[in-house]
Protein backbone atom coordinates (compact mmCIF):
# COMPACT_ATOMS: atom_id res chain seq x y z
CA UNK A 1 0.00 0.00 0.00
CA UNK A 2 1.32 3.45 -0.93
CA UNK A 3 1.15 6.59 1.24
CA UNK A 4 -0.83 8.09 -1.66
CA UNK A 5 -3.48 5.37 -1.19
CA UNK A 6 -6.84 7.05 -1.60
CA UNK A 7 -9.82 5.76 0.30
CA UNK A 8 -13.25 6.81 1.43
CA UNK A 9 -14.32 7.46 5.01
CA UNK A 10 -17.90 7.78 6.21
CA UNK A 11 -18.72 9.52 9.48
CA UNK A 12 -21.84 7.61 10.53
CA UNK A 13 -22.64 10.25 13.15
CA UNK A 14 -23.22 12.73 10.35
CA UNK A 15 -25.08 10.52 7.84
CA UNK A 16 -28.83 11.24 7.97
CA UNK A 17 -30.01 8.73 5.34
CA UNK A 18 -30.88 11.33 2.70
CA UNK A 19 -29.30 9.06 0.07
CA UNK A 20 -28.04 12.05 -1.94
CA UNK A 21 -24.79 10.09 -2.34
CA UNK A 22 -26.62 7.22 -4.05
CA UNK A 23 -28.42 9.54 -6.46
CA UNK A 24 -25.31 11.58 -7.24
CA UNK A 25 -23.31 8.41 -7.93
CA UNK A 26 -25.92 7.05 -10.34
CA UNK A 27 -26.22 10.36 -12.19
CA UNK A 28 -22.47 10.99 -12.39
CA UNK A 29 -21.71 7.52 -13.67
CA UNK A 30 -24.77 7.10 -15.91
CA UNK A 31 -25.92 3.97 -14.11
CA UNK A 32 -29.22 2.39 -15.17
CA UNK A 33 -31.68 0.73 -12.79
CA UNK A 34 -29.96 -2.18 -11.08
CA UNK A 35 -26.28 -1.63 -10.26
CA UNK A 36 -25.62 0.61 -7.27
CA UNK A 37 -22.02 1.67 -6.72
CA UNK A 38 -23.06 3.44 -3.49
CA UNK A 39 -25.62 1.96 -1.11
CA UNK A 40 -26.76 3.31 2.24
CA UNK A 41 -27.25 0.44 4.67
CA UNK A 42 -29.37 0.69 7.80
CA UNK A 43 -27.79 -0.89 10.87
CA UNK A 44 -29.62 -1.36 14.17
CA UNK A 45 -27.38 -0.81 17.20
CA UNK A 46 -27.69 -0.32 20.94
CA UNK A 47 -25.70 2.62 22.29
CA UNK A 48 -25.81 3.66 25.94
CA UNK A 49 -28.80 1.34 26.44
CA UNK A 50 -30.79 2.94 23.64
CA UNK A 51 -31.76 1.05 20.50
CA UNK A 52 -31.36 3.10 17.35
CA UNK A 53 -30.70 2.88 13.64
CA UNK A 54 -27.53 4.28 12.11
CA UNK A 55 -26.94 4.73 8.41
CA UNK A 56 -23.82 3.58 6.66
CA UNK A 57 -23.06 4.51 3.05
CA UNK A 58 -21.24 1.52 1.56
CA UNK A 59 -19.11 2.29 -1.49
CA UNK A 60 -16.01 0.37 -2.53
CA UNK A 61 -13.35 1.17 0.05
CA UNK A 62 -10.48 0.68 -2.43
CA UNK A 63 -8.81 -1.63 0.07
CA UNK A 64 -5.06 -1.63 0.63
CA UNK A 65 -4.96 -5.29 -0.34
CA UNK A 66 -8.21 -5.87 -2.25
CA UNK A 67 -9.59 -9.39 -1.88
CA UNK A 68 -11.54 -8.93 -5.13
CA UNK A 69 -8.32 -8.39 -7.08
CA UNK A 70 -6.79 -11.56 -5.66
CA UNK A 71 -9.95 -13.59 -6.36
CA UNK A 72 -10.34 -12.51 -9.99
CA UNK A 73 -9.17 -15.41 -12.23
CA UNK A 74 -9.20 -13.20 -15.35
CA UNK A 75 -7.01 -10.40 -13.98
CA UNK A 76 -9.77 -7.89 -14.70
CA UNK A 77 -9.43 -6.08 -11.36
CA UNK A 78 -6.36 -3.96 -10.75
CA UNK A 79 -5.08 -1.40 -8.29
CA UNK A 80 -3.51 1.78 -9.63
CA UNK A 81 -0.02 2.11 -8.12
CA UNK A 82 -0.08 5.91 -8.05
CA UNK A 83 -3.16 6.28 -5.82
CA UNK A 84 -4.41 2.81 -4.89
CA UNK A 85 -7.75 3.21 -6.65
CA UNK A 86 -9.16 -0.23 -7.55
CA UNK A 87 -10.64 -0.41 -11.05
CA UNK A 88 -12.12 -3.06 -13.34
CA UNK A 89 -11.24 -3.75 -16.96
CA UNK A 90 -14.66 -4.90 -18.19
CA UNK A 91 -13.11 -6.28 -21.38
CA UNK A 92 -11.28 -8.86 -19.26
CA UNK A 93 -14.16 -9.63 -16.85
CA UNK A 94 -15.72 -13.06 -17.43
CA UNK A 95 -18.65 -12.48 -15.01
CA UNK A 96 -17.71 -15.40 -12.73
CA UNK A 97 -18.58 -13.42 -9.54
CA UNK A 98 -15.54 -14.65 -7.60
CA UNK A 99 -14.94 -10.99 -6.69
CA UNK A 100 -18.38 -10.77 -5.10
CA UNK A 101 -17.69 -13.81 -2.92
CA UNK A 102 -14.27 -12.45 -1.93
CA UNK A 103 -15.27 -8.87 -1.06
CA UNK A 104 -16.04 -8.66 2.70
CA UNK A 105 -18.37 -5.73 2.03
CA UNK A 106 -20.37 -7.19 -0.89
CA UNK A 107 -19.47 -4.25 -3.10
CA UNK A 108 -19.17 -5.74 -6.62
CA UNK A 109 -22.24 -5.12 -8.77
CA UNK A 110 -23.25 -6.74 -12.05
CA UNK A 111 -25.02 -4.92 -14.85
CA UNK A 112 -27.06 -6.19 -17.77
CA UNK A 113 -23.84 -7.24 -19.52
CA UNK A 114 -23.11 -9.59 -16.56
CA UNK A 115 -19.75 -7.88 -16.03
CA UNK A 116 -18.53 -6.61 -12.68
CA UNK A 117 -18.69 -2.91 -12.01
CA UNK A 118 -18.17 -0.82 -8.90
CA UNK A 119 -17.20 2.57 -7.52
CA UNK A 120 -14.27 4.10 -9.38
CA UNK A 121 -13.82 6.76 -6.71
CA UNK A 122 -14.88 9.08 -9.55
CA UNK A 123 -11.37 8.83 -10.95
CA UNK A 124 -12.46 11.06 -13.84
CA UNK A 125 -13.15 13.81 -11.27
CA UNK A 126 -10.54 13.14 -8.59
CA UNK A 127 -7.72 13.07 -11.17
CA UNK A 128 -8.63 16.73 -11.83
CA UNK A 129 -8.60 17.58 -8.11
CA UNK A 130 -12.40 17.57 -7.88
CA UNK A 131 -14.42 15.76 -5.18
CA UNK A 132 -16.26 12.54 -5.90
CA UNK A 133 -19.96 12.88 -6.77
CA UNK A 134 -21.02 11.32 -3.46
CA UNK A 135 -18.74 13.58 -1.44
CA UNK A 136 -19.92 16.71 -3.25
CA UNK A 137 -23.59 15.76 -2.83
CA UNK A 138 -23.49 14.94 0.89
CA UNK A 139 -25.16 17.86 2.73
CA UNK A 140 -23.80 16.66 6.11
CA UNK A 141 -20.20 16.29 4.88
CA UNK A 142 -20.26 12.72 6.17
CA UNK A 143 -18.19 11.40 3.25
CA UNK A 144 -14.49 12.16 3.09
CA UNK A 145 -12.25 11.04 0.23
CA UNK A 146 -8.48 11.30 0.19
CA UNK A 147 -5.35 9.74 1.59
CA UNK A 148 -5.35 8.48 5.17
CA UNK A 149 -3.27 11.53 6.16
CA UNK A 150 -5.71 13.94 4.48
CA UNK A 151 -8.75 12.32 6.09
CA UNK A 152 -7.04 12.16 9.51
CA UNK A 153 -6.23 15.89 9.30
CA UNK A 154 -9.86 16.75 8.52
CA UNK A 155 -11.13 14.57 11.38
CA UNK A 156 -8.65 16.09 13.87
CA UNK A 157 -9.82 19.57 12.86
CA UNK A 158 -13.47 18.57 13.28
CA UNK A 159 -12.89 17.09 16.74
CA UNK A 160 -10.82 20.09 17.84
CA UNK A 161 -13.56 22.47 16.74
CA UNK A 162 -16.19 20.32 18.43
CA UNK A 163 -14.19 20.22 21.68
CA UNK A 164 -13.68 23.99 21.62
CA UNK A 165 -17.41 24.50 21.10
CA UNK A 166 -18.27 22.16 23.99
CA UNK A 167 -15.71 23.90 26.22
CA UNK A 168 -17.19 27.32 25.51
CA UNK A 169 -20.71 26.00 26.08
CA UNK A 170 -19.61 24.76 29.52
CA UNK A 171 -20.17 21.06 28.89
CA UNK A 172 -16.73 20.23 30.30
CA UNK A 173 -17.20 22.49 33.35
CA UNK A 174 -19.62 20.19 35.20
CA UNK A 175 -16.97 17.87 36.77
Descriptive account of the structure:
This protein has 175 residues and is an alpha+beta fold. It has two domains: 8-59 and 120-170, Alpha-Beta Plaits (2-Layer Sandwich); 63-118, Alpha-Beta Plaits, CATH 3.30.70.20. Helix content is 29%, strand content 22%. It is built from six helices and eight strands, in the order E-H-E-E-H-E-E-H-E-E-H-H-E-H. It has helices spanning 20-29, 67-71, 98-102, 123-126, 133-137, 148-168; strands at residues 6-10, 39-47, 50-58, 77-79, 86-88, 109-110, 116-117, 143-147. Strands 1-8 form a two-stranded antiparallel sheet. Strands 2-3 form a two-stranded antiparallel sheet. A two-stranded antiparallel ribbon has the order 4-5. A hairpin with a 5-residue loop joins strand 6 (109-110) and strand 7.
Task: Note the main attributes of this structure.
single chain, 175 residues, alpha+beta, Alpha-Beta Plaits, 2 domains, two-stranded antiparallel sheet, two-stranded antiparallel ribbon, 6 helices, 29% helix, globular
Question: How is the topology of this model organized?
Answer:
Blueprint: E1 6-10, H1 20-29, E2 39-47, E3 50-58, H2 67-71, E4 77-79, E5 86-88, H3 98-102, E6 109-110, E7 116-117, H4 123-126, H5 133-137, E8 143-147, H6 148-168
Antiparallel strand pairs: 1-8, 2-3, 4-5, 6-7
Radius of gyration computed on alpha carbons = 18 Å
Find the CATH topology of the largest domain: Alpha-Beta Plaits
- Overall strand count: 8
Indicate how many domains the architecture comprises: 2
CATH class of the largest domain: Alpha Beta
Main beta sheet strand tally, sense and closure: 2 strands, antiparallel
The N- and C-terminal alpha carbons lie at a distance of: 44 Å
How do the strands of the widest beta sheet line up side by side? 1-8
Bulk shape: globular
The CATH architecture of the largest domain comes to: 2-Layer Sandwich
Mean pLDDT: 91
Low-confidence stretches: none
The helix content, as a percent range, equals 25-40%
Q: What structural class should be given to the helix and strand makeup?
A: alpha+beta
Tally of separate helices: 6
Strand fraction equals: 15-25%
Order of helices and strands: EHEEHEEHEEHHEH
Amino acid sequence: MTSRQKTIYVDTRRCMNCRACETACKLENGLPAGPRWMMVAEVEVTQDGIDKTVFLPMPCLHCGEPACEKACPAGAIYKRPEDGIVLVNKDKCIGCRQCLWACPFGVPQFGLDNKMEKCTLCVHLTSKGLPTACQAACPAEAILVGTVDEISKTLRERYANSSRKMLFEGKYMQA
